[in-house]
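Hi all, posting the design record for the shared folder.

TITLE: backbone redesign
STEP: 1 of 1
STRUCTURE INPUT:
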């Protein structure tokens, strides 16, 4: 089968959601899909930047404060690490062992090493913030933000898992609402 030349001005047949050339230099789009980043506020984006540090430290098996120092000197992102992100990593660091122990103990049927790495980072930072952070009145909102982050960054089952485990840690400590 040979492709017959199209008459001038005729549109190319549409494919499954792909941009197709109309004429040389022009592209027709069937639809556009907004990026999910519009669903996250500035505080959530700061949390995600802190999660990046925890994730990198976990992947490289390095101390989280060493990775933080590297990120403060040289950042892989286009913008410097926000102060709030740094503060969250510094909040997590002294409690890292206790947090991992709590997560390991209270995550039913999911040892820490078997969790997806993104979920581990989310749970670690979320635990630090709700258990050791200064915003004691907003713990439910903080858990909600980490749940939303899990929805954007991880698997379909992750938001429910993150929400349930963070809430369980609060309840066990008597900090729940």
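Okay, here is what came back for every position:
SEQUENCE:
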């Amino acid at each position: 089968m040979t492709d017959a030349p199209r008459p001038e001005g005729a549109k190319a047949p549409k494919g499954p959601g792909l941009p197709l050339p109309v004429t040389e230099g022009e592209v027709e789009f069937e639809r556009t899909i907004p990026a999910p980043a519009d669903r996250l506020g500035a505080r959530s984006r700061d949390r995600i930047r802190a999660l990046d540090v925890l994730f990198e430290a976990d992947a490289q098996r390095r101390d989280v404060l060493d990775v933080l120092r590297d990120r403060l000197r040289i950042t892989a992102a286009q913008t410097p690490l926000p102060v709030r992100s740094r503060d969250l990593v510094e909040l997590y660091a002294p409690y890292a062992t206790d947090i991992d122990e709590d997560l390991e103990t209270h995550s039913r049927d999911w040892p820490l090493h078997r969790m997806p790495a993104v979920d581990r980072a989310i749970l670690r930072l979320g635990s630090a913030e709700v258990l050791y952070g200064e915003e004691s009145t907003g713990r439910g909102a903080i858990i909600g933000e980490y749940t939303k982050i899990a929805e954007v960054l991880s698997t379909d089952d992750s938001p429910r898992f993150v929400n349930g485990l963070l809430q369980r840690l609060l309840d066990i400590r008597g900090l729940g609402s």
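COMMENT: Residues 11-37 have pLDDT under 50 and may be disordered.
Let me know if anyone wants the other runs.
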